[in-house]
Design a protein that fits this description.
Blueprint (H helix, E strand, L loop, with lengths): L3 H9 L13 E3 L1 H8 L6 E5 L4 E4 L3 H4 L21 H15 L4 E5 L2 E10 L3 E7 L3 H10 L4 E8 L5 E9 L1 H7 L3 H4 L4 H4 L3 H4 L1 H11 L3 E8 L5 E10 L3 E8 L1 H17 L5 E5 L5 E4 L1 H7 L3 H4 L10 E3 L4 H11 L1 E9 L5 E12 L5 E10 L1 H42 L4 H15 L4 E7 L5 E8 L8 E3 L4 H5 L3 E3 L17 E9 L2 E10 L5 H29 L9 H18 L3 E8 L2 H8 L1 H18 L5 E6 L2 E7 L3 H17 L3 E2 L2 E2 L5 E8 L6 H17 L5 E3 L8 H5 L1
Parallel strand pairs: 1-5, 29-30
Antiparallel strand pairs: 2-3, 2-6, 4-5, 5-6, 7-8, 7-11, 9-10, 10-11, 12-13, 12-17, 14-15, 15-16, 16-17, 18-19, 18-23, 19-20, 21-22, 22-23, 24-26, 24-29, 25-26, 27-28
Helix pairs in contact: 15-16, 15-18, 16-18, 20-21
Protein name: Diguanylate cyclase with PAS/PAC sensor
Pfam families: GGDEF (PF00990), PAS (PF00989)
InterPro entries: Diguanylate_Cyclase, GGDEF_dom, Nucleotide_cyclase, PAC, PAS, PAS-assoc_C, PAS-like_dom_sf, PAS_fold
C-alpha cells in the first residue's frame, strides 16, 4: 500500500528481499476486506474497473464525501451525480489513473483521499479509496480492538519464501505478546512464533501469497512468559506480504472445546439430549435419543419435533409448560411420549432455554430420561409400602385385639360365678366385635341342651335354649359360616336374620361345652374368632372346674350337704356376724337313733339311702339362710342364724316329727321308721368361741340319747350339768 507508514517500513526491509518485484496493485479479497475495513474509523471503499461499488466499510456513511451516494449498494456506481459535472469528472479521472496502476492523492473539498490500485478476487482490477492522513492511519490501526499487523515476505536469493517480517503492529498485538512495539517491528514471524512451522499456519500463509486466497484459521500465540492463548486469524494478501487481524477466542475456544467434550459425553449417556430452535425444529439429537425413541439423528435434524414425538403431559398441559419455560427459563416434569415402534414411554424431562451472551433466547434444550424401569420399581415400591402399611395396620389391630382378648381372659380368671362370667363375656365381646352381634350359650351338664349365658349387640335375637341338633357347628365340631342364600342356616338362627353368621363350637377335651354365635354385615377374622372362642371356653370350663372342686371340698358326696370342713369355716363366720348384729344363733347336733342296727338289718346301701333321704328333709324344712352339714357318720349339724331359744325348740321338734313320719323306700320296699335325737344350744349375746358352741350342742345331744333318744334337748335345760362341765 503506497502510504507513508507502509512505505517507511517497507523501505527499511527492502534490502532483505533481493528478488522481490513490487507490483502497483494490492490483492484484495472482498471478504477479508470487509472484516478488516469495518474495524477502521475512517471511510474506506473499493470499486471495480467500471467504478461500481464492491465493498464499503461501516464508517463510510458518516465520513463519506458529500457528493457521493449516502447508502450505496454493491454494484452501484460510485461517482457523483450528473448535477455536479466538474466533481464527477474529477472523481472519474482519479479512478481511471488508479485503475491504470497509479497511486493517487487528491484533495477534494478540503479532504485528502488516497486512491490505491488493487486486484479484487472475482472482479479483477479496482481501486481502494480511503480518507486518511499518515497519522490518521496510525491512529486507525491503534483504534482497532483486535491485534492487527502488516507483514512482508522474506525470500532467499532464489526467490523462495523463508519467513515473514513484521512491518507494523498495533498496541493490542503488543499486549498479547508482551513485547514493546519497537521490539516487534522488523521481527521475523517464525522467530516470534516457531510453532507456526509445525501447526500449518506458515504453510497457509505461503499458499496465501501464491493464490491470493484469504486465510482463516485457529492458532495460538504465546507471550514472552510462554503462556499460550487461542486466536482466530484473518489474513489477506498485501503486496508481497499480508495483513492479519487476530481475534482472541481463548474463552470461546475453551467453551467450544468443553462443548465438544460434552457432546462426546452426551453421546455416551443414556439420556436423550434434544436441541431445537425456538420454532421446535430439531438441531441436535444425541445417541441417547436414538436409543430411546428409535429415530437416528440424520432422520430428525432439521425437521419439526412434533412430527416425530407425540407427547402427553401428566400433570399439566403443553401450553402451561411452555409458559413456565419462557417465564423462568426452565421446566421440569414427567410426560409420556410415543416411540417409533408405537410404544408409550414414561419420560422425565428437563427443558431449558438456551441464550446468547445478551440473554436473548436462541433455542431449547431438553434432557429426557426413560423412567420406565424407575416407574416399574416405584410401582413395586408403592405396592410394597401399601402392603407394609396394611401389615402395620393389621399388626396394630391384631395387637389391640390380642390385648382385648388377654383382658377378657384375665377378667374371666377372677370370676367366682357364672353370673359374673356372663357379664364379663358380654362386655368383652362388645369391645372385640363392635360391628357384630351375637351370644354365648353353655351346655347343661349331662344334657344335650345349651342355655343362654351372655349376649351383645343391637341385632341380637338370642334364644333362651337350644339343643345340639339345632346347630351344624355343634354336630360337626367345626366352625360353620353362612351368608344369605349361600349356605345352610342352623335351626337356632332367626328367620329374620339377613346378615352373615358364624357358629363356633366350644369343645373342651372332646366334649361340647358351649357355643359362640357371631353375626353381622361382615365377619371378623377367623383367627380372632377362634382365639376368642378358645379364651371363653377355657375360662368357663376352668370356672366350672373350680366350682366342682370347691363343691367337692365343702360338699359331702353322699348327701349333698356341706361337710365338716365347711362347717368349721361357716360357723366361725356366722358367729361373728351374729355377735356383730346382736342377733341369736342356734347350733343343733343331730344323730340317727340305732343307725348301726339299721345298717346291720338292711345293709349299707339302705343306710346310704337313709342318709340321703335325711338330707332331702333338711333341705325341705330349712330356710335358705340355714346351713345343714354332715358332721361325720350318722351325725349332722344345723346352724340357724337369727333363731332364738324358743323358736329353735319349736322348729327342731317339728323336724324330729317329720323324720319320724317319713316313709323311706329302698329296693322297692318300705323301710321301718327311724327317729333322730337332737341337742342344741342358742347363743344370745354372750361372747363364745365356735368350738364351745359345738361342745354344748354335742353335750345336749348326748343327754337326749341318754334319756331315751327321739327327743330334742336344749343345753340350757340341763340342770344337773353345769356349763363348765358341758364345755369340758
Amino acid at each position: 500500500m503506497k502510504i507513508k507508514i507502509a512505505e517507511k517500513n517497507a523501505m527499511a526491509a527492502s534490502h532483505i528481499s533481493l528478488d522481490q518485484q513490487e507490483t502497483p496493485w494490492l490483492d484484495i479479497d472482498p471478504l477479508i476486506a470487509a472484516t478488516i475495513l469495518n474495524c477502521l474509523p475512517i471511510a474506506v471503499w473499493i470499486v471495480d474497473e467500471q467504478y461500481r461499488l464492491v465493498v464499503a466499510n461501516t464508517t463510510y456513511q458518516r465520513a463519506r464525501p458529500t457528493c457521493m451516494p449516502a447508502t450505496p449498494q454493491a454494484g452501484e456506481c460510485m461517482l457523483p451525480d450528473d448535477s455536479l459535472p466538474k466533481c464527477r469528472d474529477h472523481w472519474q479521472q482519479q479512478y481511471a489513473h488508479a485503475v491504470q496502476g497509479e497511486h493517487r492523492i487528491s484533495t477534494i473539498d478540503g479532504i485528502t483521499y488516497y486512491f490505491q490500485p488493487v486486484t479484487i478476487k472475482h472482479f479483477g482490477k479496482g481501486v481502494l479509496v480511503c480518507t486518511v492522513q499518515d497519522t490518521t492511519l496510525n491512529l486507525a490501526i491503534e483504534a482497532m480492538p483486535d491485534p492487527f499487523g502488516i507483514y512482508t515476505a522474506l525470500r532467499n536469493r532464489s526467490g523462495k519464501l523463508i519467513d515473514f517480517q513484521i512491518v507494523a503492529v498495533n498496541s493490542a498485538f503488543c499486549q498479547i505478546t508482551g513485547y514493546q512495539q519497537h521490539e516487534l517491528i522488523g521481527q521475523r514471524l517464525l522467530d516470534l512464533f516457531p510453532h507456526y512451522h509445525e501447526d500449518g499456519t506458515f504453510a497457509d500463509l505461503q499458499q496465501l501469497l501464491k493464490t491470493g486466497e484469504p486465510v482463516r484459521r485457529i492458532t495460538t500465540i504465546s507471550d514472552r512468559s510462554g503462556t499460550p492463548r487461542t486466536f482466530e486469524v484473518h489474513a489477506g494478501k498485501f503486496n508481497d506480504g499480508f495483513v492479519a487481524s487476530w481475534r482472541d477466542i481463548t474463552a470461546q475456544y475453551q467453551i467450544e472445546h468443553r462443548i465438544r467434550q460434552q457432546a462426546a459425553l452426551l453421546d455416551q449417556i443414556a439420556d436423550a439430549v434434544i436441541a431445537t430452535d425456538l420454532n421446535y425444529v430439531i438441531t441436535g439429537w444425541n445417541r441417547g435419543a436414538e436409543r430411546i425413541y428409535g429415530w437416528s439423528a440424520e432422520e430428525v435434524i432439521g425437521k419439526p419435533l412434533g412430527s416425530f414425538l407425540k407427547t402427553q403431559y401428566t400433570n399439566t398441559t403443553m401450553e402451561e409448560a411452555a409458559l413456565v419455560l419462557h417465564q423462568t427459563g426452565c421446566w421440569e416434569g414427567e410426560v409420556e411420549q410415543q416411540r417409533r415402534d408405537g410404544q408409550i414411554v414414561p419420560i422425565h424431562a428437563v427443558v431449558v432455554l438456551s441464550r446468547d451472551e445478551n440473554g436473548t433466547p436462541t433455542g431449547i434444550v431438553a434432557v429426557n430420561r426413560d423412567i420406565s424401569e424407575r416407574r416399574h420399581f416405584e410401582q413395586l415400591l408403592m405396592k410394597a409400602n401399601q402392603r407394609l402399611e396394611q401389615a402395620i395396620i393389621d399388626a396394630r389391630r391384631q395387637a389391640a385385639e390380642i390385648l382385648l382378648v388377654n383382658e377378657l381372659h384375665d377378667l374371666l380368671q377372677v370370676c367366682h360365678t357364672f353370673a359374673e362370667a356372663a357379664e364379663v363375656v358380654a362386655f368383652g365381646l362388645e369391645r372385640l366385635f363392635p360391628r357384630q352381634y351375637g351370644y354365648v350359650m353353655v351346655r347343661q351338664a349331662g344334657t344335650a341342651n345349651l342355655t343362654l349365658l351372655a349376649q351383645w349387640g343391637d341385632g341380637t335375637d338370642a334364644p333362651a335354649m337350644i339343643t345340639i341338633d339345632q346347630c351344624w357347628a355343634l354336630r360337626r365340631g367345626l366352625i360353620h359360616r353362612t351368608c344369605p342364600h349361600e349356605s345352610i342356616r342352623c335351626a337356632h338362627i332367626s328367620p329374620n336374620e339377613h346378615h352373615c353368621t358364624c357358629c363356633i363350637p366350644l369343645v373342651v377335651q372332646g366334649d361340647i361345652f358351649g357355643l359362640l354365635y357371631i353375626a353381622g354385615e361382615e365377619l371378623p377374622r377367623s383367627e380372632l374368632i377362634v382365639m376368642t372362642g378358645d379364651t371363653i371356653k377355657l375360662a368357663l370350663s376352668n370356672l366350672a372346674l373350680r366350682a366342682t372342686l370347691r363343691e367337692q371340698a365343702i360338699i359331702d358326696p353322699l348327701t349333698g350337704l356341706y361337710n365338716r370342713r365347711y362347717l368349721e369355716t361357716s360357723l366361725s363366720r356366722e358367729l361373728h356376724r351374729a355377735q356383730r348384729e346382736q342377733i341369736p344363733l342356734t347350733v343343733a347336733m343331730i344323730d340317727i337313733d340305732h343307725f348301726k342296727q339299721f345298717n346291720d338289718q338292711y345293709g349299707h346301701d339302705a343306710g346310704d339311702t337313709l342318709l340321703r333321704e335325711l338330707a332331702v328333709i333338711f333341705r325341705e324344712h330349712l330356710r335358705q339362710s340355714d346351713l345343714a352339714c354332715r358332721f361325720g357318720g350318722e351325725e349332722f349339724v344345723l346352724i340357724l342364724p337369727g333363731v332364738n331359744q324358743a323358736t329353735a325348740q319349736t322348729r327342731l321338734q317339728h323336724l324330729r316329727e317329720v323324720v319320724q313320719q317319713r316313709q323311706i323306700i329302698f329296693a322297692g320296699a318300705p323301710l321301718r321308721p327311724i327317729t333322730i335325737s337332737i341337742g342344741y344350744f342358742t347363743c344370745e349375746k354372750e361372747e363364745i368361741e365356735p368350738h364351745i358352741l359345738l361342745q354344748r350342742a354335742d353335750a345336749a345331744l348326748y343327754a337326749a340319747k341318754r334319756s331315751g333318744r327321739n327327743r330334742v334337748i336344749d343345753f340350757s335345760n340341763l340342770p344337773t350339768l353345769s356349763s363348765d362341765e358341758g364345755d369340758k
